[in-house]
UniProtKB/TrEMBL annotation:
This is ATP synthase subunit 5, mitochondrial. InterPro entries: ATP_synth_OSCP/delta_N_sf (IPR026015), ATPase_OSCP/dsu (IPR000711). GO terms for cellular component: membrane. The keyword ATP-binding does not apply. GO terms for molecular function: proton-transporting ATP synthase activity, rotational mechanism. It comes from the Eukaryota. PANTHER family: ATP SYNTHASE DELTA CHAIN. It comes from Kwoniella shandongensis.
């Protein structure tokens, strides 16, 4: 993993000793994400925020553009083919640090891991901003009214004090009859109606 970090950082943006990540991610994708985070923050907080926007935009493009998704996931492309195509699939004006990340992933045969790297990068950004990411998994997308009720309930807990909540709704059809709520190091299972009372009791006690 150390070689991964050196590979990203050696492109002229940062060294691991000059800045620190707000949280430690021990996975391989987390190492790529951390290296990218450090590279941007070394330049300036403004560059980090700009990179975060570009990562969000490109991650969305992968999800919504079938051709881009196919390119990212295509295992038959050679390293040179992937490298030459990267600039064309990135939105115009994207951060060069994002291109560097994708280039390193491509060179290491891990371009298909980009969405997971982006997810880990977003975890770093949330920690940097003092946000607490709340993952709400439901069988169908929740409306704003339901998400706002959950946001209001969680703001009063001990875990959320001093933090800005970032509620993300993920859809999993296998979650029947309720929700799964992940925040901090805690998971609350509301997928069975009998557990709703336990959730309310936990909230009233500050979790």
């Amino acid at each position: 993993m150390a070689s991964v970090m050196r590979s990203v950082l050696s492109r002229g943006y940062a060294t691991a000793s000059t800045v620190k990540a707000p949280i430690q991610l021990n996975s391989l994708t987390g190492t790529y994400a951390t290296s990218t985070y450090l590279a941007a923050l070394k330049k300036s907080p403004k560059d980090l925020e700009s990179l975060a926007k570009d990562v969000e935009a490109f991650d969305k493009k992968i999800k919504e553009d079938a051709k881009v998704a196919a390119f990212i996931q295509n295992p038959t492309l050679s390293a040179s083919e992937r490298s030459s195509a990267l600039s064309s699939v990135l939105p115009s004006g994207s951060s060069p640090i994002l291109l560097n990340l994708l280039t390193v992933l491509s060179e290491n045969g891990r371009l298909s891991s980009a969405p997971k790297v982006f997810a880990d990068f977003n975890s770093l950004i949330s920690a940097y901003r003092g946000e607490l990411e709340v993952i709400v998994t439901s069988a169908e997308p929740l409306d704003n009214k339901a998400l706002n009720r959950l946001d209001k309930a969680l703001k009063d807990t001990e875990v959320a004090k001093g933090k800005t909540l970032k509620v993300v709704n993920k859809v999993n059809p296998s979650v029947i009859g309720g929700l799964l709520v992940d925040f901090g190091d805690r998971t609350i299972d509301l997928s069975a109606s009998s557990k709703v009372s336990r959730f309310n009791a936990a909230l009233s006690q500050g979790i």
